[in-house]
Amino acid sequence: MSLRAMFEEAADFVGLAERSRETYWSWTGTFFRAVKKPAREWRGADWEFFERWLMAQRPAYSVAARKQARSAVNFIFRHVLKLEVGRLELPHLPKPEPALVVVPTREELVRLFAGLRGQDWLACRIMHGSGTRVEETCRIRVQDVDIEKARLRVWDGKGEKNRVTVLPVNLLPALKRQIDWRKAVHERDVAEGNGFVELPGRVGRKWRGAARALGWQWLLASGDVVKQHRWYHSPGCVQRALKCAREAAGIVKRIVPHSLRKVFASELQQAGMPAREIQGLLGHADLNTTATHYLEANAEGAFSPADVPAAALQRPWAIERKEALRLR
User: Fold this and answer.
1) For the chain, which residues make up each domain, given as ranges?
2) What's the whole-model pTM score?
């Protein structure tokens, strides 16, 4: 059996997420190029050499990247090759300092959305209004949109978690038009002998005909039909469209699809929503993740001393102290 087949079998057994599979397999290739040995000859010493090699490549590999690489190699040795490596002398990985949360302003968002069209515009509006990730947004199914309650059901998010989040009321008319358009496209696909969609788990066996039901179709659809299946709108298309819109708007600040999710969290915080409720809408297991990576530092009331006149810098406590020293 090839290494790739063994890898896929182990990933299925432990339930490794699709994105994690891609990342771990990429690191497996990097490990192979570094140690220059076939997988059957890999040992604990090769793991130690690989980590020292990554450390020597600075700044090509950050601490976060090296941590990710360690997780990938651990998966390969433990679950794929099933090797006992014993105690290893691996370099210390310092805890990376969390980056500052930088989000676009409302004025910048208006300029961004003005440069977007069609499904790219709708995807970005959903990410800003509902706090979804770009892949979660592109994988929304028609039946996940609850127009009456202005709610959105998110299935199999990061970590295979499910949650319910909000939908902006001002976006509901556009969502209704999108659903009507998807219905028309789906009816045309079915008439042409297509109209199938990928289903999760064993849904296809439990519910006959679900693969062609409108409710299971992707809300944001691809323009291509492959083997009678219409796929969802590509997250890469959304990323490229947002980049072009940012450049056209003349915005220097780095804005990616995930920035819209951070805007969602930060604006809810500014509006007074408790952090615990924001955590639930984002689908985070740990409140620290929400507070550290998604909420802007609260600088309300802060000011620069350069904007204060010199006379105003004489605080009462300083004057009282000077008077006390004079009396002594």
Assistant:
1) 3-80, 100-301
2) 0.78
